[in-house]
Specification:
- Keywords: ATP synthesis, CF(1), Hydrogen ion transport, Ion transport, Membrane, Transport.
- It is a peripheral membrane protein.
- Belongs to the ATPase gamma chain family.
- Pfam families: ATP-synt.
- This protein is mainly alpha-helical and 170 residues long.
- The chain has a three-stranded parallel sheet.
- Helices cover 56% and strands 8% of the residues.
- It has two domains: 57 residues; 89 residues, ATP synthase, F1 complex, gamma subunit (Pyruvate Kinase, Chain: A, domain 1).
């Protein structure tokens, strides 16, 4: 049976832990509120951009646009982006679950492949048959170690080229 002193120390310890978690909760609530406010402030810009893109696409002739053509879906490339570390709640797990659903259910009959950007998704898929990487993308596969527009452009240009060359249909 614990002594009275041990019980008092335990009560003090629990009180300190409650105080720390309460402070952490307040900090995370403030960060969440700031992020929500930023999203709300960006909404008018997103709506206007959507309107502009809608107007542009209505005036363009899409008959000779390789990205707008409709074709049978035989090969699917899923670009999955996760963080390199944790500390982001359920973000990584939600991405992994969604990719798993896409691979095993939605595109199971369409030869799905997964391009993994981020350590967590790469660790999950690198030993599976759906893991996709090529020599051109190998230097920028770990995009978050040197996050830049140039690295993102390398990936985007490679993916667009492969889509136009009909390596992937979706």
């Amino acid at each position: 049976m614990p002594s009275l002193k041990e019980i008092r120390n335990r009560i003090t310890s629990v009180g300190s832990t409650m105080q720390i978690t309460s402070a952490m909760k307040m900090v995370s609530a403030a960060k969440l509120k700031r992020a929500q406010d930023a999203i709300v402030q960006m909404r008018p810009y997103a709506e206007k951009l959507q309107e502009i893109l809608g107007n542009l696409s209505a005036t363009l002739d899409i008959s000779d646009n390789a990205y707008a053509e409709s074709r049978a879906v035989n090969n699917v490339l899923i670009v999955a982006v996760t963080s390199n570390r944790g500390l982001c709640g359920g973000f990584n797990n939600n991405i992994i679950k969604r990719v798993s659903h896409l691979v095993n259910v939605e595109y199971a009959n369409a030869n799905p492949r997964v391009l993994c950007l981020g350590k967590k998704i790469k660790d999950t898929y690198k030993k599976t048959s759906v893991y996709y990487i090529n020599d051109e993308l190998a230097p920028v596969e770990d995009i978050f170690s040197a996050l830049s527009f140039e690295n993102a452009a390398i990936i985007a240009n490679d993916l667009m080229k492969r889509f136009v060359n009909k390596e992937f249909d979706k």
